[in-house]
Amino acid sequence: MKSTPYLLSLPALLLFAVVVIVPLGMTVLLSFHDWGQYKGIEPVFILKNWREVLTDSYYLEMFGRTFRIALFVTVLTAVFGAPEAYILNRMKSPWRGIFLLVILGPLLISVVARTLGWALLFGGNSGLINKALISWGLISAPLPFMFTETGMVVALAHVLMPYMVLAVWAALQRLDPQVENAAVALGAGPFTVLRRIVLPQVMPGILSGAIIVFALAASAFATPAIIGGRRLKVAATLAYDEFLNTLNWPLGAAVAVLLLVALVVIVVGASRLVERRYAQVFG
Amino acid sequence: MSRNSPLAVCYHALFTAFMLAPILVVCFVAFTPEGYLSFPTDRWSLRWFYAIGRYPEFISAFWRSLLLGALSSAVAVAISVPAALAIARHRFRGREAMTTLFMSPLMIPHVVLGIAFLRFFTEVGLGGTFVGLVLAHIVIVLPFALRLTLASAVGLDRALEHAALSLGASEWTVLKRITLPLVLPGLVSGWALAFINSFDEVTMTVFIAAPGTETLPVRMFLYIQDNIDPLVTSVSACVIAVTVLALVALDRAYGLERLLVGRSDDGR
User: Fold this and answer.
1) Can you tell me the distance from the alpha carbon of B146 to that of B104, in angstroms, rounded to the nearest whole number?
2) ipTM entry
3) Domains parsed from chain A with CATH numbers
């Protein structure tokens, strides 16, 4: 029967049509509506919100901060996560499974709880990290972590690290260990093997991990909200403020739609680039 | 397989410490005997765990989160089984587009989904209701349920079904006695992964939960925004403990690697 697959997927299709596609369409429309302190939302079609979001320096700075933080987080996770995935992959049987659980497990632990841990570690001037650094004589005055971009980057890198390790790990599983052995047998040193054999083969994994981490970091909400406080805003926390504090829904919708569009462009563009560059590896 | 060098082992130890530090800190501080944030040094106390009992909003949020997770994951699994069978066994127009649509909640930022749901539910009169929460959570956990049910539907040996049919079983009997039991492991682990994701979700839920329908992560988030005290660390320690138990159970039953390595493929 030709209609069978459609009938089977009908419940899920209906749900997604009504609860995903319609609301997203309504949000795009909402971003073109007018809003006033006393008149509320007016269903007209104007470009006011878009003009404000795209030209006002406040929003430009905020979007700049959002993507700067996402970029730093992506680089940090790639630089530190990829070697860890490689080391994990070379571990022997019981340890491999145990540490994979330890490092990937945090992915499923509440983001709020993990960020709370960083807030405790940073904790104003008396946080554990500053106490340790001062007692070891590395710094003389406490470093500011709370309510700074540095703090947000460190906490987000921790929250998103498992995604990078996972992506590189998946790439390493497809790697043939015999190629490494062949390189060693032909006289290559361990560093040469890493640089010429392993790295080129796991590069697609690192890049696909980078795309995931970037997208999640740019749209992160709970971590920037807790570490950044009420003043240091990123796109997601700003949209939240417009919706639930200022109540300027059309402007908040414009911020959210712009974030979505920017991310889709970046993610799709980057994926295309990676796939073209590594077509033979994905083959 | 060659061994890791001592340098690599040192790096691994530091990395593991980095990954565990914030989680362990929360659990330690939860046992403080003091009335302020501090590390218990000589004395440990459960006073902040007992204190949770005096905050009924945390207790009711916990039960609400459990019910929400169980219910939305069950519905998500129930509607992804037929969809997974359709995608796995049929070649039809729009198959790719449909799969992309069902997986889209992984790609759309949860802030955007939260805003879209808030707008939609307010318009149709479901604003701040539990029904709205359930609908929204079905959508965001469906990709997890679908991926695992799809994996087991693809791996299903159709010869078993054909054998049953040729031995005179009706289609309904085949579905009940052959197909469903075979996809059951994928179904159960899909439900579990969906449940964990629903139970942890905060970004989207914070938009659509009203006072009275707040989930536990939302309640914790709003509490932390006002002030951080030992009470919220003891609540977090409980959440961490529950998640770790679920994680170990899931690892034993299905294998965490299998469960998660599939996840990394979504980004492509």
Assistant:
1) 12
2) 0.91
3) 57-282 (1.10.3720.10)
